[in-house]
Amino acid sequence: MHVLKISVGRSIDYRKAYWLPIEVYGGGAMSKNFRSGLRLNNTGKWLGILVSVSAFLHANALAQNSLQNAHIGVPTQLLAEAEPRGAAYPASGDVHPVIKTSVDLVLVPVTVTDPMLRLVTGLSQDNFQVFENKKPQQIKHFSSEDVPVSLGIIVDTSGSMASKMVRVREAVKQFCDSANPQDEFFVITFSETAHLVHDFTDSAQDIEEKLVFAIPKGRTALLDAIYMGLRKMREAKYSKKALLIISDGGDNHSRYSEREVKSAVKESDVMIYAIGTFDRYVPTEEEMLGPQLLSDITETTGGRAFILDNLIEMPALARRIGIELRTQYILGYHPEKPPHDGKWHKISVKLKLPKKLAYLQARAKTGYYAGDE
Q: What is the pLDDT of residues 89-104, one digit of tens each?
């Protein structure tokens, strides 16, 4: 996977029809630089469609675009056991339920992108279709506003990260800088064991300062760290929750298995994003399996795993992920017959767009576990 860098030729005004010049730099099949344009329609109900390339814009520009909308709350009910902050997290072979969303209202965050991974804003409720177990659902709640998020940052501090920590710290700073002022954060670091190094806080500076003292050493307990992050999210203040994982290797020292963690991921209501930086020249077996592991874990949640060839891109990519969380659509529906069977219910989201916009894609979580009450 190659991360695209986009430079904007001029500012976007979606109220007018124009050609938006873009310069794209990529790797692999897109290694040749080229220029292209995007024609936006200014008539009818498609007036509001806007392709946002602000993922790589300066922070000052954010105050003038759609990422700074008013905050609104989306009603939801969560079923979670009480657990005090800072409690110990056992590393056993048992899988404990994390969080299950009340199926009286199912919330589905959706990210819409074009083929070059640019974020698309400006769509309306009528542009979406939601299916549960292949049956269409009526969307009762719709939001495209920036709502506060509970965020967990999980950072690999194993020995192989020693030469990468400068970029990691900058990436975390960029991710936090793109956050909503009301967001809350916690941070977990992991090497041979996972540690909660800072509990939930609304101070991004506190998070950044904790990483200054991180000393890379030891092996990689990635799965244990993810499991710890999911359990920590049981204490989240907001209904929208996300984890960001930064790692350069697969797992080689966890007590939790891949099966157990994937099960916990599906039971949670947490979006997971990952930035992977793997050794392409002398990879270990864990590093070779790492990209697929991160992809499997993130895609179920509606998130994404980005695999980098160049560490320099990490801060910009972390900022891009932060902005993606700001520009998601939230769809809510009530199942026709709310299930209480404890089973996995598949979700799919489709876009209703004119043919000339058929290239846009929606990404959302693939399902949820219903409560068994």
A: 333 333 333 334 444 8
Is the full-model pTM beyond 0.85? no
Number of compact structural domains in the chain:
2
CATH of the domain at 181: 3.40.50.410
209 in any annotated domain? yes
**Overall size of the chain counted in residues:** 373
Last residue within a domain, chosen from 25, 43, 68: 68
- Tokens matching residue 25: 């730099």
Position 73 in a domain: no
Closest to 15 in 3D by CA, of 53, 52, 41: 41
Which residues, including other chains, have CB under 8 Å from residue 63's CB and lie 6 or more apart? none
CA separation for the pair 288, 316 (Å, rounded)? 24
> Could you give the CA distance from residue 322 to residue 331 in angstroms, rounded to a whole number?
20
Tell me, yes or no, whether 74 lies in a domain.
Answer: no
| Structural domain of 146 | 80-373
Question: Which DSSP helix (H) or strand (E) runs through 197?
Answer: strand 194-201
- In this predicted model, what pLDDT tens digit does every residue of 266-280 receive, in sequence order? 999 999 999 998 777
β-sheet bridge partners, residue 100: 79
Rg of the chain in Å (alpha carbons): 20
